[in-house]
Amino acid sequence: PDLHVWGSGNLIQTLIKHDLVDAFWLMIYPIALGGGKRLFADGTMPMAFKVTESIVTPPGVIVVNYERAGAITTGSL
């Protein structure tokens, strides 16, 4: 069964810690607040993701689906 989490950074961190996250749907707004809570806190388990779907809404909000992509690889852009 799927679990959908809306706005709970603490629960997300717990799920990540126990390797229970398969995907993220993120909504990125075109504003800069200058502070606030981080989705990925210091000490978050390293994970690799790939973009599987993305859209940009008329007001400029980017909605993107990231799914697990296996082992982390590094390289150049």
What attributes does this structure have?
77 residues, alpha+beta, 3-stranded antiparallel beta sheet, 1 helix, 12% helix, globular
Report on the structure:
- The protein has one helix at 9-17, and strands at residues 23-28, 49-56, 62-68.
- The protein has one domain.
- β2 and β3 (62-68) form a beta hairpin.
- With 77 residues, it is an alpha+beta fold.
In short:
The protein is α+β, with helices and mostly antiparallel strands and 77 residues long. It has one helix at residues 9-17; strands spanning 23-28, 49-56, 62-68.
Strand order of the largest sheet: 1-3-2
Number of domains: 1
> Sheet bearing the most strands, described?
3 strands, antiparallel
Q: What is the chain-wise order of helices and strands?
A: HEEE
Percent in helix: 10-25%
pLDDT < 50 stretches: none
- Regarding quaternary structure, how should these chains be classified? single chain
Rg calc: 14 Å
Query: Which percent band covers the strand fraction?
Result: 25-35%
Mean pLDDT: 86
What is the general shape? globular
How far apart lie the N and C ends? 36 Å
Number of helices: 1
What would you call the structural class? alpha+beta
Query: How many strands appear in the DSSP assignment?
Result: 3
